[in-house]
Design goal:
By secondary structure, the protein is of the alpha+beta class. It is built from four helices and six strands. A hairpin with a 6-residue loop joins strand 2 and strand 3. It starts with 6 loop residues before the first helix and ends with a helix.
């Protein structure tokens, strides 16, 4: 028979909450004031400085024209890497523009999505 664990230990063993496919917000960074000439590889290299690890870089483009919208989302592997990147890169000039780097915010779910979830 397995030994009973103290209450606190059981709490630590719980599975993480479901995120409906969204990434951990503490590791997702919003980069604004991005130059249209900044390449994805250059942005990745910039964020990987000081031995930080980048999971994904996505530069936003307009759906109709394909032109860049001036911002990107960078997914770091850990919250510590995200904080270090924000501290190091906020205000840094890249391709003639001073970057604004901050944690990304989750867009609130639409009321219609709440209704659909309630019916399941």
């Amino acid at each position: 028979m397995p030994a009973l664990l103290p209450f606190d230990s059981r709490r630590q063993m719980r599975q993480p909450a479901k995120t409906n496919g969204r990434q951990n917000v503490a590791t997702k960074i919003h980069v604004s004031n991005l130059s249209s000439s900044t390449a994805e590889n250059a942005l990745r290299t910039l964020f990987e400085g000081d031995s930080r690890t980048v999971e994904r870089v996505a530069i936003a483009t307009d759906r109709e024209t394909g032109e860049r919208r001036g911002f990107a989302l960078v997914q770091m592997t850990t919250p510590e890497d995200a904080k270090a990147a924000i501290d190091a890169l906020n205000g840094r000039e890249v391709d003639g523009n001073a970057l604004a780097v901050r944690l990304a915010r989750i867009k609130p779910a639409s009321p219609a999505a709440s209704i659909v979830d309630a019916r399941r």
